[in-house]
Design goal:
two-stranded antiparallel sheet; about 20% strand; 6 strands; single chain; Rossmann fold; 4-stranded parallel beta sheet; alpha/beta
Length: about 150
């Protein structure tokens, strides 16, 4: 990421769901779960709080990546019209699709523990069906660490 340009701060927000406020079971995290709709709203409200904070710091551009499950969780009607949104899959940069050198900051909402932490809510790293761990330079990484490396 580069230093802030003269024309304002650019902020990238990647939003997952397992780590949002109040999440304790898988029933809250997918379309078939009885609390899923409620947790979509919680996830969206946490993203809105990050947008408000970014604007308070002078953000002129905000890009949000819906990075949980099918990538179609955030409630579109609640997002400000000038905020850009990336939804659905596939994406070459996965949870960080759309980030580039224009951005000055990255915010991670609702991130969670890795596959090796048995106490986490749906603990995984990117895809529990395909990966048991991800290492970067020999260190096991959480999604936040992987995505921070992508952000630069």
């Amino acid at each position: 990421m580069n230093a802030q340009d003269d024309d304002g701060l650019r902020v990238y927000i990647s939003a997952d769901m397992e780590g949002v406020t109040g999440t304790v079971t898988a029933d809250q995290l997918g379309p078939s779960g009885f609390e899923y709709q409620r947790f979509r709203e919680i996830m969206t409200r946490e993203v809105l709080a990050a947008i408000e904070a970014a604007r308070a710091m002078g953000a002129v551009e905000i890009l949000v990546s819906d990075s949980h499950g099918n990538g179609e969780n955030l409630l579109l009607e609640l997002l400000p019209p000038d905020v850009q949104l990336i939804r659905s899959w596939p994406r070459p940069l996965m949870m960080m699709e759309g980030i580039d050198e224009r951005f000055d900051a990255a915010i991670f909402i609702g991130y969670h523990t890795s596959t090796t932490n048995t106490r986490g809510v749906r603990a995984h790293t990117i895809s529990s069906a395909n990966l048991t761990a991800v290492r970067l330079n020999g260190m096991e990484m959480l999604e936040a660490g992987i995505n921070a490396a992508i952000a630069g």
